Amino acid sequence: MQFSSVAYETRLLLDDPLEVTANYELYKFGAGMIGRHTHSPSIRFRDRPTSPSKETEVVVVRMHVSGRTSGVMDGQSFVSDNTKISIFNFDQSIRAKYEDVEILTFGIPYSAIGYDPSRHPAVMDISRKSVIGKMIERNLTHAFEQAQRIDPEDAEVLSSGISGLLQGLLTQNFRDESAYRKFKIAKETSARSYIKANLKHADLNADVICKEVGISRPALYRLFETEGGVGKAITQMRLEGAFEELCRSVPARGAVANVARNWSFHDQAHFTRLFRGCFGFRPSDALGSDHAEGGQYYNGATHELPVRQSSDVQLMDVYGPNTR
After folding, report:
1. CA–CA distance, 257 with 261 (Å, rounded to integer)
2. Coil, strand, or helix at residue 295?
3. Torsions phi, psi of 167, nearest 5?
4. Which of 209, 278, 294 is nearest to 238 (CA)?
5. Rounded CA gap, 226 and 314, in Å?
6. pLDDT class for 46, splitting at 50, 70, 90?
7. Is 249 in contact with 287 (CB distance < 8 Å)?
8. Which of 22, 155, 254, 309 has the most crowded Cβ, counting Cβ within 10 A?
């Protein structure tokens, strides 16, 4: 595994030129990378990569030998010092203040330890005094001491040992299931809220959602797996939005086409097929409808319309009690 220069690019967050000293030692170590970093006092930032890749889908273990680092990762504040070991998702933006630090780090791909951004926290801290903390400290220190002279086979063994320990942290007692459920729900809520707010934008797609919400593509797909995928979920929500607008619209020439375009359906025939497949009746049947006891009124005629399960509510709630 290699880290690209783009993934590691950081910049000073100060306008005035200062003399800043930073040193990086990085060694290939089994499936991961191990290294030591030193920084004189400085404030630096790194933007979230625009396109997640193998170089950025990495979990980093950071142990301070000396000094202190504080800052924000994707909106979540953190403080790291020599009292704890930090484990964090590298695929996020960071703003950090370094205070004469020396840090040992170990980076490992998501796949090697079973890390899932949709289920696991972006930042985790472990006390250096805890049993697990002491084990990680011993393994990390020993691995770095041997990194320059160890042969590849032994490096693979040591790397696997550290990876196994990290995987155990993610899957066993360290995990707070209620916290993970809340984390997952929060991500799903953010994704759905962003989609609903941007349904009328024709360029809404998985790449845009991942970038704006701060979620990986695999995690986004899992959120909408039961709905047939992200694309189908977006189409369904657009159809529901179009249905509601049609109901509110005054019947007029070109009204259906205008509503279709408003919800990013630029082919009216295609929109009509999708609409009828979803709701069981034509868009023109919903145009200008009104709510009333006993059913739906279209130009004075009463119709019992089929009930359709919406992504949020049942459409029978829109129609009224007699559409059940």
Report:
1. 6
2. strand
3. -65, -40
4. 278
5. 17
6. confident
7. yes
8. 155
Nearest residue to 107 (alpha-carbon basis) of 87, 125, 126, 122: 87
**Across the chain, what does the average pLDDT equal?**
76
Contacts of 43 (CB under 8 A, 6+ apart): 12, 13, 14, 95, 96, 97, 98
CA distance 81 to 192: 37
Widest pairwise Cα distance in the chain: 87
pLDDT at 178 over 80: no
Are 203 and 264 in contact by the 8 Å Cβ rule? The answer is no
CATH number of 224-323: 1.10.10
pLDDT on residue 317: 27
d(CA 294, CA 305): 11
CA distance 304 to 324: 9
What contacts 31, CB < 8 A, 6 or more positions away?
A: 1, 108, 109, 112, 156, 159, 160, 163
User: Would you list the domain boundaries of the chain?
Assistant: 5-175, 224-323
For the chain, percent of residues with pLDDT exceeding 70: 75
pTM: 0.49
- Top CATH class, 5-175: mainly beta
- Residues with Cβ within 8 Å of 101's Cβ and at least 6 positions away in sequence, in order, are 37, 38, 39, 64, 66, 67, 68, 69
